[in-house]
Amino acid sequence: TTTKSGLRSDFLWGGAVAAHQLEGGWQAGGKGVSVADVMTAGENGVPREITAGVLAGKNYPNHDAIDFYHHYREDIKLFAEMGFKCFRTSIAWTRIFPQGDETEPNEAGLKFYDELFATCHQYGIEPVVTLAHFEMPYHLIEKYGGWRDRKVIDFFVHYAETVFKRYRNKVKYWMTFNEINNQTAYDNQFAIATDSGIVLDPGDPDAEALMYQAAHYEVVASALAVKIGHKINPAFKIGNMINMTPIYPLTAKPADVMQAEKAMQRRYWFSDVQAWGEYPRNMEAFFKRTGFRADITLEDREVLRDGTVDYVGFSYYNSNTVAASADNPTYHYAGEAVTNPYLQTSEWDWPIDPEGLRYSLNWLQDRYHKPMMIVENGLGARDKVEADGAIHDPYRIDYLRAHVEQMIKAVTEDGVDLLGYTPWGCIDLVSAGTGQMSKRYGFIYVDKDDDGNGTLSRSKKDSFYWYQKVIKTNGADL
Ligand code: P53
C-alpha cells in the first residue's frame, strides 16, 4: 500500500553509518587492527596517510571516533526519537576475527553486536548491515596483500557465515561490500586500500591489473555470501552496495557521449556482475585485450550466476561530468573529469545534483530490474554551535529536501521500486575521505573537533526536527 507521498507504507526511513567511522574502541573487547586504524587524518586536498601499522605520534581519528561503542544506547534512542524504521551500520570484521584468518570467532565482538541489534529492535528499528565497509583486518593486508590473494575469499566467507548464523533472527537486510566500485579509481591510494586492502604507492603502475583481479575475487566472495546467507535464512535480503555517481557527457559531441558511456561501463560492471550473475560483454572484451583478471575459473562463473543479489543498494552524493580528450582517451573512470557548469559544489568541492538522484534511480531500475535502497546520501558541511546550544543547518535541510523530492518523483512518476532511504552519517562521525570530524553530515551533533578534543556530548540540530517530520508524514511534508 502507498501513502499520500506515493511511498509505500513500510518505507524504510533511517540513517547510515559504518563501524570504523563512529564506534571507536579500536582495541576494546579484543578487536584487531583494521585498515581504518592505520589511516591518519587529512583534509580537503590533503590525502590521509596509510601507515605501516599503528605508529607512535600519529593522529588516527578512527581509534576513538565518537565512541559509539560506549554510547550506542543513547544514540539509538535519539534515532528512535526521529522515528527511524531502520539503521544501517556495518560489523567491524576485526571485532569478530581480529586477524582475519582465525578459525574461531571472538565472542566479545559477537556479543557487542548482539546487544547493539537488540537495542535497535527494542525501538522497532530494523538493522541493515554491511559486511565489509573499509574495515579489512590489517593482518590480512600484511600477510596476504589484501584481496590480491584468492585465499581471502575463504576468510571473508567464513566471517560472513559466522555473522549470518549468529544474527539469523536479528538481521534481515544485509549488504556485502561497501562501494565496491570506488576502486575504479585504482590510482587513488585511498580507494584501492579501503576497497581491496591493497596498499600501493601513489602512481604504482601495477595498480590497474591488481585492482581487476582483486575485484574479481570480491564479486565471487560476494556471490558466495549471498548463496550461503540464503541457505542460513531464506528470508534474508542480501544486497550489493555501489557508489552511484552518474557520469554525464559535457556536450552533445558524440566523442563526449562515448567517453561518458565508456566511463560508466568501467564504473558499473561490478553491479552488473552482482545483479546479472555474469560480466558484461564490454568488460570481457576489455579483459581479453588487456590480460587483466587472468584468474577466473568455470566454478567462479557458476558461483556468480548462483549468487545474484536481492536488491541494489547504493550511495548517491553527486554526479561527474567528462569530456573526451582529443588525443588518447583512456576511458578511465572520470579520468577526463571536467567541471559541470550547471552545478554548485560543497565546501569539499562535491557537486550538488538532486536531479542526478532521480536519473540514477531510473538508470539502475532499467538496468537491473531489482528493488533498490538508497543507503547513503547527504551533505558534508561545517556546523556552528550557537551560544544557546542550537545548531541551525538550513543548508543540510535544503540538500536533503531536494534529494528526497527527486527520490519521490522517481517512485511516483517513474515507478522505481524503492525500499528505503538512509542518509549518511545520521550522527556526526569521522569522514572516510578526509578523516575530519569537521566535515559533518549528522542530524545529531557530536562535540569533538579535528584534533580529538571535545566532550562527545550529543545535541540535536534543526535538521533533526525536519527529518522527524519527514518520517512522520512518510515524505508528504518536506
Ligand atoms: P566522506 C568519497 C570518499 C570516500 C568515501 O564521504 C566515500 C566517498 C563518496 O563517494 O564513500 C562514502 O566521509 C562511504 C562513507 C563515507 C561517505 O561516502 O569522505 O561509504 O564511508 O563516509 C562520505 O565525506
TrEMBL record:
It is an enzyme of class 3 (hydrolase). It comes from the Bacteria. Keywords: Glycosidase, Hydrolase. Pfam families: Glyco_hydro_1. GO terms for molecular function: 6-phospho-beta-glucosidase activity. InterPro entries: GH, GH_1_N_CS, Glyco_hydro_1. Its EC number is 3.2.1.86. Belongs to the glycosyl hydrolase 1 family. This is 6-phospho-beta-glucosidase. It comes from Lactiplantibacillus plajomi.
